Amino acid sequence: MNKLTKVGLSALCGSLAAASVANAGTLDVSGGATASWISKSGDVTGNPIGINSGITFKGSGELDNGSTFTLTLTQADQDAWSGGSMVIDTPSFGQFKVASGDGGSGIDSKDDAMPTAWEETDGTGLGTGHDKISGVGGSMNLNYKTPDFGGLTMTIAYAPSNDGVQNADKATSGTTGTKQKAADVLLDFNKSFDSASVNVFTGASISERSKAPKEGGTNTDNNEHHQEGVAGAIITYGPVKVGAQISGEYLGNRQTGSDTFGYRNVAYGVSFNITDDLSISYGFHESKRGFVSNDTHTVISEAESLQVAYSIGGASIKIASTEVEDQNYVTGTTGDKEATTVAVSLAF
Asked: For 200-249, how does the pLDDT look when each residue is reduced to its tens digit (9 = 90+)?
């Protein structure tokens, strides 16, 4: 990690207006790069060689009252800024965050929280096409996380417009998408014992649907609000970690039998740290797409991934064998895909 520079902060507004800066903040940069080769079966591969570059800028500092502040900006691949957040952690009142598509807001942080050696089941280069929960995570949103009460925390996230747009300062998204203002609530319980730990979580999200076009919106069916929910548990015992979760999404469509009204997702995974440097995992994800009244259109898509990861200092080698049945909810052999991915990552 390379220290770039030091920055100062003169004041904070609102409830923290009386707190001055105790120490100058720091801005650090870290990053990594991954080169991969993927071989697909039942799909067009083309050139199988790929490279990913990731850079994270993180600024931090402390106030006289013990509160800390953090800025995080992530450039996940090539030359595109993909997510960021500004966080203030207080000693007694919890955490406050302004998030910009960082993926860690509300229930979006639990779209697939299952243990893996490397990536989520759909994150190894072979897309599943599964529609997973997201809540307000892809939009500009405000977060509040309570202090830890015996292992239990509650996070509330709010987006004035859940449109998936990341704004620069002094800017607005200006969009009129189907989903408007939205809120997430997530309960997360973590408890550690001598050689084991337990994580249990549950959360829900609701996004108001916009009005009909004649009222200034884009919702042509003018139906119910968009709703999502998730619940799951992860148990760690020594080098073994096991987890399972279920989530659901209700789109609010209640018009005709051909409308998709929602999705139900079930996932589980197990990982095993053979040594400090070598780990293996197996992950499974099932997604069911449901229609309003026409069961003949209902499709269940399944995906599984077997992964191995080995670290050598700042370098790591990762291998994943992934299969998906009825990719993108397309039935028949055309929707069945397989892929093997080999990746070498460097951290600096």
From this structure: 999 999 998 765 444 445 555 556 788 999 999 999 999 999 999 999 99
71 Rama class: left (phi>0) / alpha (psi -120 to 50) / beta: beta
Between CA 171 and CA 232 the distance in angstroms is 37
The rounded Cα 256 to chain-centroid distance in angstroms is 32
d(CA 116, CA 242): 10
Three-state secondary structure of the chain: CEEEEEECCCCCCHHHCCCCEEEEEEEEEEEEEEEEEEEEECCCCCCCEEEEEEEEEEEEEEECCCCEEEEEEEECECCECCEEEEEEEECCCEEEEEEECCCCCHHHHHCCCCCCCCCCCCCCCCCCCCCCCCCCCCCEEEEEECCCECCEEEEEEEECCCCCCCCCCCCCCCCCCCEEEEEEEEEEEEEECCCEEEEEEEEEEEEEECCCHHHCCCCCCCCCCEEEEEEEEEEEECCEEEEEEEEEEECCCCCCCCCEEEEEEEEEEEEEECCCCEEEEEEEEEEEEEECCCHHHCEEEEEEEEEEEEEECCEEEEEEEEEEECHHHCCCHHHCEEEEEEEEEEEC
- Give, rounded to a whole angstrom, the gap between the first and last alpha carbons of the chain: 6
pLDDT one-digit tens code per residue, 244-293? 999 999 887 665 555 677 899 999 999 999 999 999 999 999 999 887 66
Nearest to 243 by CA among 264, 218, 267: 267
Query: What is the Cα–Cα distance from 304 to 294, expressed in whole angstroms?
Result: 28
Rounded to whole angstroms, how far apart are CA atoms 336 and 334?
Answer: 6
Compare 315 and 53 and report the one with higher pLDDT: 315
> pLDDT higher for 255 or 143?
143
* This prediction's pTM: 0.79
